């Protein structure tokens, strides 16, 4: 049972962009997920006033994600609904390890990219923090999103390794997160320094079993993972990022302000603890449903 943190109660945060279902082929179950959606749900679990804004399809997967958000009291009232297939990713578990075997790359969200209008900018300006990702198809709008937000964070996941994203994206960000468990700490630090050098206020890399490392332009801060009984690692990185960001915001972090190493350390420790708690839940945050479409394991 995750206990909300009362220090987050006054914070309005928004997950902007991707939502999917992760379809576990071995069990025939699908779970809501996606970087931006996970952020909104995890922020709600931690006690923040969280909402989601994105694009949904009209299939069973989309209906399940929307119903789950409603059950969790995470509003998605400004989201688009487009006729077609919602985003999904197919997962197979082999010898206890989770493998992604197929993705429709966002479904209708990819086919009909979200273009924020003035009404969207007015809406997101009410939030203390807006979080999006490389899977949200919003890179061309980041300058506008930054101008309309108080803090803008972005998850590069693993895409920074295969696309030229760091230089064009990081000038528009207050916070950058990237997955680097397969390249190691030294390479991760190179990229974090590059991100901050391009104007991002704070950059962080998750390193899998090695924990995480952050860079603020001056200090390198590391944290180890919290030991736990792992049920499913899906969403652990998003959980770490969410708790880290909320902790920094609760301490009063504002755009353009330097974040000191002690504040970063405390925030990352909160992130590690929350990630360990999420690892004890099936799927990103539970809420399974049967896979309705015909897929094979």
TrEMBL record:
It comes from the Bacteria. Keywords: Kinase, Plasmid, Transferase. Gene3D superfamilies: 3.40.1190.20. Residues 24-280 form the Carbohydrate kinase PfkB domain. One of its GO terms (molecular function) is kinase activity. Belongs to the carbohydrate kinase PfkB family. This is Putative sugar kinase. It comes from Neorhizobium galegae bv. orientalis str. HAMBI 540.
